[in-house]
Structure formats: structure tokens, C-alpha cells
Write a structure and sequence with these properties.
By secondary structure, the protein is an alpha/beta fold. The protein is 31% helix and 26% strand. The chain has eleven helices and 15 strands. β14, α11 and β15 form a beta-alpha-beta unit. The N and C termini lie close together (12 Å).
């Protein structure tokens, strides 16, 4: 079978497509015939050895997938051959077949296409955990989403609206803001490209404040980091929650902690993968709730581009360019 492989440290240009042995279902596992693979920012970082997890090489990128069960191992009862499923894999998804522990597989509705299923669990799972568990959001509160047209950002926009919040989308172009508005954002703001000097940071903060309303934002969802973080934090409300999702801008920000004192606010880390592993019951419940929201039409992955498996490197390169909107998916024939 074919798989996209990272055999040496480097960018997408270092990835290769090779034939490798097909997996077998060991006890407790199922073999999935992969139909689609979601591409996410951790894929960009992982092949460069810049992510928290560093799998031994060679490995396939791809942290989430959808497909059909081809075989099950001894003791597996929750899935059977022919079932349509989605899975979060961490890595290893960009292959024609994958063997995974059966407890990491979730049935998908007949109405859910495979490309949407592959674009679902990581982005919506991250944003749902961020808003519900870490942000403790309430209906009527205000939410600023940085990077609102990306995968996790767009999911945060939809989920914020589903939870009854007023959502402001912050993006790098008017086109991206318009996309976020189509997915439920009440308002939007276009920010420039960093890095910013102090004067530019002050102007950016004033731009955010112009959309915050009286008192500031109750919750800020930051998947961007860099020089955008401090200007955003300066617009937070008293006892607001600043959710740290990631650093798509490429730099980890340094925050003046006096701001947290003056605002009485919280800076809250969001690491969905570790939370899911440490609290599998809460994770399972969140997946059920997300699938219910999908069935109710309140959330729907926006797949902007699809690449075949042999162009998996191009899919990762496109996502890393920060030009992608919504989700990029690799399809497997």
C-alpha cells in the first residue's frame, strides 16, 4: 500500500510517497481503509521536529482521518467490518490503510461525507474543549477569535455562535473575514502582517477595542500568538479568559503579567490531545455532543481544498503558507 512518509527532518519537500506493508489488526485494533485525511498545523510542525510529539521515523503525517473498517482484531466489539468511522490518530493518517486501537474510532452519520468527517474531530474537538471546558463560556458573552478563517478558528466561530456568544472574527484579509461571517461571526476585523513595533501593536489593540464593545471581550481565542497576543489581551474584559491554542504566527509571545493583574483575567492553556488522553470519558462525551451539533446543522466543516494522497506534501505546504481557509483534506482513492 502507498503512504506519505517523513524519513528525514525538514519541510514538505522532504516527504516521499512509498509502498509499505499493509497493517494487520492486532488484538484490540481495527484496520481502516482510509478515505480522507485532515491536514492540520501540527502536521507542518511535526515533520520539522518542532511539535510537542516527535514520532520515530519513518512516519506518516496526518492526525485525523475517516474511512471504512476493513478488519477487526480479537476482542473488538464497538466496530465491525463495513462501518464508516472517523478517528484522531496523532500521526500516521496519510496512508491507504491504517491500524488503530478500536477505542479511538467513532461512528459517523450516513449523511456525513468522508471529507467532512476527516476535517471534524481535531478542529471542533480543540475548539469545543477550549470554549466549554477551559473558557467556561456563557450565552451572551463576547468572543474574539484570532485566525478566525483557519481550521480551529472557523470551528471556534461556529461553536461560539452555537453557544449563544457574540463573535468577532479577526483575520488577515477581508476575504477571510467574510468567510467567518458566513459561518456565524457577528463582526470582523482585518489585521496586518507582523512583526509589529510598539506603535503598531498599540494601533492593533485599538483596532480590536473598536469591536469589543463596552468592557472588552469576555473570552479571547488565540491560535496565532506572536505580536498579536499582547494587543488582543489588552482588550480583555474584567475576569476574562484568554485561551492559548497555538502559535501560527511562528513566535511564542512574551506577555507582561501586570496585564493579568489589572484585568483580573486568566491566561488558559488548551492542549486538547493530552486532555483527551487523561479524561477519555469527558472526551467521549464531547465527541457525542459535537456529532449532535453536526446533525442539528449548527456546525459543518468547511473543506476549501482537496489533494490526492500522492500530493500530500503539497497539502501540508499549502496549509503552512497560511493562505488556506477552513480545512485542507487529502483524499485517498
Amino acid at each position: 500500500m502507498k503512504a506519505v512518509l517523513s524519513k528525514v527532518t525538514g519541510g514538505p519537500e522532504t516527504l516521499v510517497v512509498e509502498d509499505i506493508p499493509a497493517p494487520e489488526a492486532k488484538p484490540g485494533q481495527a484496520v481502516i481503509s482510509v478515505k480522507a485525511v485532515g491536514v492540520n498545523f501540527p502536521d507542518v510542525l511535526m515533520i520539522e521536529d518542532k511539535y510537542q510529539s516527535r514520532p520515530p521515523r519513518p512516519f506518516s503525517p496526518g492526525g485525523e482521518l475517516s474511512g471504512v473498517i476493513e478488519a477487526v482484531g480479537e476482542g473488538v466489539t464497538n466496530v465491525k467490518v463495513g462501518d464508516r468511522i472517523l478517528a484522531n490518530t496523532g500521526w500516521g493518517g496519510m496512508a491507504e490503510k491504517v491500524a488503530l486501537p478500536a477505542n479511538r474510532l467513532w461512528h459517523i452519520p450516513d449523511s456525513m461525507p468522508h471529507d467532512e468527517a476527516a476535517a471534524f474531530i481535531l478542529t471542533y474537538g480543540t475548539s469545543y474543549h477550549a470554549l466549554k471546558h477551559r473558557g467556561r463560556v456563557k450565552a451572551g458573552e463576547s468572543l474574539l477569535v484570532l485566525g478566525a478563517a483557519g481550521g480551529v478558528g472557523l470551528a471556534a466561530v461556529e461553536l461560539g455562535k452555537a453557544m449563544g456568544m457574540r463573535v468577532v472574527a479577526a483575520c488577515s484579509s477581508e476575504e477571510k473575514v467574510e468567510l467567518a461571517k458566513k459561518h456565524g461571526a457577528d463582526d470582523g476585523v482585518v489585521y496586518g502582517r507582523g512583526p509589529f513595533d510598539r506603535d503598531a501593536q498599540k494601533k492593533l489593540s485599538e483596532l480590536f477595542k473598536s469591536k469589543a464593545g463596552e468592557g472588552g471581550f469576555d473570552v479571547i481565542y488565540d491560535a496565532v500568538g506572536g505580536d498579536y497576543a499582547e494587543p488582543a489581551l489588552r482588550t480583555i474584559a474584567w475576569e476574562g479568559r484568554y485561551l492559548v491554542i497555538g502559535f501560527a504566527a511562528g513566535e511564542i509571545p512574551k506577555i507582561p503579567l501586570n496585564l493579568t493583574l489589572l484585568k483580573g483575567c486568566e491566561i488558559v492553556g488548551v492542549f486538547w490531545g493530552t486532555w483527551a488522553a487523561k479524561d477519555p470519558e469527558a472526551f467521549a462525551q464531547s465527541v457525542k455532543e459535537l456529532l449532535d451539533l453536526y446533525a442539528a446543522g449548527k456546525i459543518k466543516p468547511y473543506v476549501s481544498e482537496r489533494f490526492p494522497l500522492d500530493k500530500g506534501a503539497d497539502a501540508i505546504a499549502h496549509l503552512g503558507s497560511r493562505k488556506a481557509m477552513g480545512k485542507v483534506v487529502v483524499t485517498v482513492d
